[in-house]
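Bug report

Summary: structure tokens for Flagellar basal-body rod protein FlgC differ between web form and batch submission.
Environment: batch mode, default settings.
Steps: 1) Submit the sequence below via batch. 2) Compare with the web form result.

Sequence submitted:
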Amino acid sequence: MSMFSIFGVSGSAISAQSQRLNVVASNLANVDAVAGPDGQAYKARQVVFQTTLMGAESSAGVRVKEVTESQQPGRKVLDPNHPSADAEGYVTHSNVNAVDEMVNMISASRSYQNNVEVMNTAKSLLLKTLQMGQ
């Protein structure tokens, strides 16, 4: 594996973590959502990663394989005066857990930062190698 392939591997990880952060942001924005455009409560989404080969160099990277929806039922809150209440007076809210999403956001952010640091370290090593040749 060449030093230059490090940039491809870290770049793919940065891209994947960026997508993960976007999904987390969407989940957090809909924590208290009652009904989506289809009339159903918002369902939390999670990113599934997959290892992938990066070109002809047999180095591996990462990509987002899919974004899945949680199948857990939404929170039911008794509010008979709400326009979206069912026959028993319950309103179904999204199934997003704000604490889980905050932990997910911190994890994605740290992974993103670590991959940026890997790229900066590789760049520094390449520059020092070039300086040694002078």
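Above is the batch result. After comparison, the two runs are identical; trailing whitespace caused the diff. The first strand starts at residue 45 and ends at 53. The helical segments are 3-29, 98-132.
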